[in-house]
Amino acid sequence: MASNLRIQLDRTAKLSLSEQIRMSISRAIESGLLAPGTRLPSWLDLAAQLGVARGTVQAAYERLSDAQMIETFRAGGTRVAPRPRTAGGQPEAPRLGAFMQSYQEMNAGPAIFQLGIPAFEGLPEKLFARARSSNLLKTGGLSSLLYPDPRGEVELRREIAGYLSIARNLHCYPEQVFITSGYISGLGLALRVLGLDGKKAWMEEPGFMVTRKGLELARLNIVPVPVDAEGIDVGYGIENAADAALVVVTPGQQAPLGSTLSLRRRLQLLEWAASSDAWIIEDDYLSELQLQGRPAPALASLDEGKRVIHIGSFSKTISPGLRLGFIVAPTDLANAFAEVAATLAPAPSPVVQLATARFMRDGHYVRRVRRLKRLYSGQQDALCEQLRIRDAEWVNAGLAVLLRLPDGAPDVQIVREAMTMGMAPSPLSAWFAAPSLALPGLLLGVATAPAHHVAASCRQLFKIIDRYR
Fold it and tell me: What is the pLDDT of residues 406-462, one digit of tens each?
């Protein structure tokens, strides 16, 4: 019998007496005070002991029984149910693996020189607030009672198709456009549709670590393909893995080195994909935010909707907080994308989609992109001037400046020290699949480097770098 069971009731508490009894017994079982097999008092005995109605104890016992914490036997009375054996104590909270630690560091902030996010100032919150409150959001009507189109709201898909035809020379139908929760969501959707488990996939070297991890989780065998001034070395890929089923590229501005895939290599890549029945995923992560010259057309614009899956997002042009992106699927895959979207990966909230559609339709999106390009060009010039003053070695790399470091310099450690001072450059070595081939360097984000902060931030950063020379 549970002679050591002590239950204190507070009759002034908001919690019912029955719930207080249940919680007291539950805590005693979980702490080990009441071991499995221990017999509990009967409803009548415990009710008399506590001075409550029998039904109050009965209700507590019934909830404990439903939770499989106690068992009731006719002759044997009510006893504590068997519990799973543990090594002792509460289990430890799961620890983050190496990839998630790197991912969190990469997305910490906001901070000076951080990659992947737009400028701190000028986000269109007011415009989006007005769009959300408009009657275009279908609130209160019969349509709000229906399941939304898993492909995405047709208003936004039309706006994206129209925008791509002008800005990226990519002509497609709204039926080819699928709304996602950003680039990673789009990559996952594409990999589900393609179903290439066990096949080879070309991956740019260096390249985006999250893409690499996504390909690994999709059970693809990654073939690192080097990148040079013309972009991914297609000839190397054909020579070393002509039987690959997939290639993931950033042709507009290679991430992280910033080179644009040359026309010669674009045509070579498309010809190989067509002859090999391979697929190409185009990560158009910076869209038309190219600061030098006119943006190159999308790779998919040369493909006539056959082998290229185009993925874009609004993370760099509006905000990553929207969690909004899109896919343009080849015509032959549009139905497969629709089926997977309907069953495994539906589009995000219609409210955000419709607000974005209106933002685009009213011309705000195009104006914002133009403003960002002017702003970033000025910030890039200011940053490069500070690097010239210090006789540093650097190259422009899209919306970043790649600062070269001496061989052997611990760029990861330098970044971790910089983070304590409100800066978050990205270590170049972390973008390589093979540590033996990794080169040290710092990717300094231009979008998050306001001109009036650059001089002071560079002074702090170079103080850290100088300690490792």
Answer: 888 899 999 999 998 999 999 999 999 988 788 999 999 999 999 999 999 999 999
The pLDDT tens digits for 239-280 are 999 999 999 999 999 999 999 999 999 999 999 999 999 999
3-state SS track over the chain: CCCCCCCCCCCCCCCCHHHHHHHHHHHHHHHCCCCCCCEECCHHHHHHHHCCCHHHHHHHHHHHHHCCCEEEECCCEEEECCCCCCCCCCCCCCCCCHHHHHHHHHCCCCCECCCCCCCCCCCCHHHHHHHHCCHHHCCCCHHHHCCCCCCCCHHHHHHHHHHHHHHCCCCCCHHHEEEECCHHHHHHHHHHHHCCCCCEEEEEECCCHHHHHHHHHCCCEEEEEEEECCEECHHHHHHHHCCCCEEEECCCCCCCCCCCCCHHHHHHHHHHHHHHCCEEEEECCCCCCCCCCCCCCCHHHHCCCCCEEEEEECCCCCCHHHCCEEEECCHHHHHHHHHHHHHCCCCCCHHHHHHHHHHHHCCHHHHHHHHHHHHHHHHHHHHHHHHHHCCCCEEEECCEEEEECCCCCCHHHHHHHHHCCCECCEEHHHHCCCHHHCCCEEEEECCCCCHHHHHHHHHHHHHHHHCCC
How confident is the model over 163-172, as a mean pLDDT? 95
Question: CATH assignment of 99-113+367-466?
Answer: 3.90.1150.10
In the chain, where the domains are located: 17-80, 99-113+367-466, 125-362
Name the architecture of domain 17-80. Orthogonal Bundle (1.10)
- Please tell me whether the overall predicted TM-score, pTM, comes out greater than 0.85 for this model: no
Of all residues in the chain, the percent with pLDDT exceeding 70 is 90
Domain 125-362, CATH: 3.40.640.10
